[in-house]
Design goal:
Blueprint (H helix, E strand, L loop, with lengths): L2 H16 L8 H8 L7 H13 L4 E4 L2 E4 L6 H14 L4
Antiparallel strand pairs: 1-2
Length: 92
């Protein structure tokens, strides 16, 4: 998969798993996190967010950053499921 596709998926994943109305994230923070895997800057994140919004993803912008609205799971639910999977590792 080419880098551009990876970047937009990483932006989407961050917004889905790490944000909510009480925990928005800025473009700069997203870029910094993604830069641990791929070279990325704030403008690239902004273009990806714009593209995701055009595709219908419920991304909301606030004065403190962006967050994904109306997710399938809350951040707490995702943490619970992740913890359960980690705890069950090796039990299968």
């Amino acid at each position: 998969m080419e880098k551009k596709k990876h970047l937009i998926l990483l932006v989407l994943k961050l917004l889905e798993t790490e944000t909510d109305a009480n925990h928005p994230i800025t473009q700069t923070e997203i870029a910094k996190t993604i830069s641990e895997v791929y070279s990325c800057d704030r403008k690239t994140v902004g273009r990806n967010i714009k593209d995701l919004k055009e595709l219908g993803y419920p991304i909301t912008k606030t004065t403190k950053g962006f967050y994904m609205d109306r997710k399938l799971f809350t951040v707490g639910e995702i943490d619970f499921v992740t913890s359960a999977i980690v705890a069950a590792n090796g039990m299968c």
